[in-house]
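Here is an idea for our session: we take a single protein and study its fold together. To get us started, please write out a protein record for me. Start from the sequence, derive the backbone structure tokens from it, and show both lines together. Go ahead whenever you are ready, and we will take it from there:
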Amino acid sequence: MKNLKYIFLVSIFALTLANAQSTSDTNFRKPVSETLKKIETVFNVTINDDRGLLKGKELDYADWRIEPGNLALSLTNILAPFELMYFKQPDGTYIIRKYENHKVSVDKGKERLFYLESLYSTKEEWEKRKTELKACMIASFGLEKAPPMPKSKPLLTPKRIYKDYSVENIALEILPGVYATGSIYKPYPFNKKSAVIITPDGHFGDGRYRKDEQYRCAMMAKMGAIVVGYDLFAWGESLLQFPEETHRNSIASTVQLLTGIRLLDYLATVKNADMTRVGVTGGSGGGSHTMFLSAIDDRVKVSAPVVMVSSHFSGGCPCESGRGIHLCGNGTNNAEISAMMAPKPQLIVSDGKDWTLAVPELEFPFIQRTYELYGKKDLVENAHFAKEGHDFGISKRMALYPFMAKYLNLDLNKVKNDKGEIDESTCVIEPKEKLLVFGDKGEKLPKNALKDINKLYEMFGEKNLKVYEVKK
């Protein structure tokens, strides 16, 4: 007992001494880590600096920045001078991270949704905000400054015919000398009006050549849709024109969105393409562009963003968040951008191991509220996979197929086996080489292909301000 009393007195003495040594003579300067320990005591929380971001950092008037009764403000006061942020974890602890404009904590996302809800409570109020958001997004992406699409014919490879579908690769000149590359999957035989589905690629390994993208394109084609899967900017065959590092230029986000728009322009000229039935779906970065395209292009009738709808994360790549569209309307987020699809059918696919972990409790009710303004609450659905991670895996595809069939009038029976199960086994997974339009070594790349990122910016009346280190 005496030992415990002794330890307690020593602790009090040490704390008192520390406070005594922090005076106006030193501007009450203290190590930030010490002030955060005091915050832990005051608010009964745990704060982890697991990346050592606070090492060696000191702050004037440190303890004075603690606001009793307001943990969020206290943490912000201490961390903001160093461009650091805090994130509340699911277990209630807090971690320290560098400031990122595209990422906040879940509780901050929740606060933002509460604020957005206060801006509109009627369909008319929402329609006004939606119009403002759409106009701002179009201006931020620079779409109104885009040169017209060249009148050149698309480059198409010979078709490969499989059971109930065909595949051909396409290169579409969407800007002078800038080619969007992808593959078109069509029902076979292709003899009647078919829905149109475009599926922008995401930041997954192997790009659009990977199995899960081939599966979903082939399956939806078998169900009766013309489906186009296409490369990201400076990914896949786009690398023949622009080096990998330019994928992180803000113009990438403009080109990727424009690719979706101009692919739809082209598909509108294809015989038997039913442009009254247009869908879009993509995962991760492709999920971002699914939301953007659905918000901006009124031709989209059905949308299915996968593992990307979030109020606290807007995409870590400038190809998603580099144009500042989330500053529109004095601040928006992907949950509100997703809600811009209302009242048209939308499937939001989420999981428990990425930034979509809180969708069922947080973002989905917010989006449902917007649909409810139209009396169409049932037209938005959430397929949540709590034990899964960031992918477009089979369970997510199995949620996608019935939804697209229901709202685009596709034949789901075309992809069912004798047991009545949706079966992907009849799809042919092609090697990368078969999915290329410019040849194995890029030998078929058109002579006018643009390879200068600066000239791409100039097309939009802008300058490229991003500087890269020269690789040796």
